[in-house]
Amino acid sequence: SSSTASTSTTSTSAAVVDPLNLRWVAAESERRARRGHSPLPGDSPEPEPPSANQQQQQQQQKFVAMYGNFRADYNRQTRGASEFNIGQMQDDRLQLLQQDWYTGRDVLDIGCNDGVFSMRIAEAMGVKSLTGLDIDEELVRTAQSNLEDRLRELEKEEEGKSDLARVEENKYDVIQAFSITKWIHLNWGDRGLKLFFKRAYRELRPDGKFIVEPQPYKSYQRTLLCPTHKQNYASNIELKPEQFKQYLEREVGFAHIVSVWEQQQCHGFQQPLLLCSKPSGRTPALAREPSQHNFRLFVPSHPL
């Protein structure tokens, strides 16, 4: 009787010490590891934290280019067109621009993206200065990286206390806006786009040129990337791209507007560029010596 009680006590004591049978689990896990077998269910090692490269890839997958601020590796398929990269599309468009619009001029490039196309214009056209403006800080950093080996002066200025950044009125001879009207329209509706056109007019010197690319209205629906886009597309857009020319003449005040057609035979469509001229008047004297080294970049915190 005494022996039975002792055995019972010993058994109870063992159950209390290892109630989950962890000793056996540990031994079995070690045995499986030695033999190269799969671990016990629930015994897998903790996953390693993602590397910096993996984190960057995850961020890129989540990235939504709601302002049309596509990265350099985006191609025309991403933007709802054909499978041609942005660089090739920009090269084709460069053929339409005339050197006498740019030579010796102060140029503002709104929506300069990674700066590559801006630099091509500066080099090919002999501009006096070219200021790049983009809403995306990462693209501006990329532009700085792309240009620092080719420019002696590169200045990044962060501005954001006014509508388009605090650029001076009547400062520029040429303002160009490629592939951005749709994104202004989708993010800020008619009001934002009209404000943009009027601000561009004010920043130009007399006899200055505004070069703008109206994007086809049929492309809007393919790029409704967020609720703001959908709301503006449904309720706040009445001014269609085919009406831009009339609005720029009658409401904004440009004296002469010419449509320059972009023939993209490889894409199978034509896309217009509008060359808008501000009326002549007293124009500050221009230094006509071209310079490839006066290039600035702006990042407006609040574009409109």
Q: Would you kindly provide a written description of the structure presented here, covering whatever features stand out?
A:
- With 304 residues, the protein is α/β, with parallel strands linked by helices.
- It has one domain (60-300): Rossmann fold (3-Layer(aba) Sandwich), CATH 3.40.50.
- Helix content is 37%, strand content 18%.
- An eight-stranded mixed β-sheet has the order 3-8-2-1-4-5-7-6.
- Helix 7 links the parallel strand 4 and strand 5 (204-212).
- Helix 4 (86-94) packs parallel to helix 5 (116-125) and helix 7 packs across helix 8.
- The chain is elongated, with a radius of gyration of 31 Å.
- Residues 1-15, 73-87, 152-166, 263-269 and 282-304 have low confidence and may be disordered.
- Belongs to the methyltransferase superfamily.
- Residues 137-171 form a coiled coil.
State the distance separating the first and last CA atoms.
Answer: 93 Å
Number of domains: 1
Bin the helical content.
25-40%
Mean pLDDT comes to: 70
Enumerate how many helices there are, as a single number. 9
**The level-1 CATH class:** Alpha Beta
Which blocks of ≥5 consecutive residues have pLDDT under 50?
A: 1-15, 73-87, 152-166, 263-269, 282-304
General form: elongated
Strand order of the largest sheet: 3-8-2-1-4-5-7-6
CATH architecture: 3-Layer(aba) Sandwich
At the fourth level of CATH, the homologous superfamily is Vaccinia Virus protein VP39
Structural class: alpha/beta
How would you characterize the largest beta sheet? 8 strands, mixed
Residues in β-strands, percent? 15-25%
Order of helices and strands: HHHHEHEHEEHEHHEEE
Q: Output the CATH topology.
A: Rossmann fold
Q: Over the alpha carbons, how many angstroms does the gyration radius reach?
A: 31 Å
The number of distinct β-strands equals: 8
Family: Belongs to the methyltransferase superfamily.
Region (Disordered): 27-61
GO molecular function: O-methyltransferase activity; RNA methyltransferase activity; snRNA binding
Protein name: RNA methyltransferase
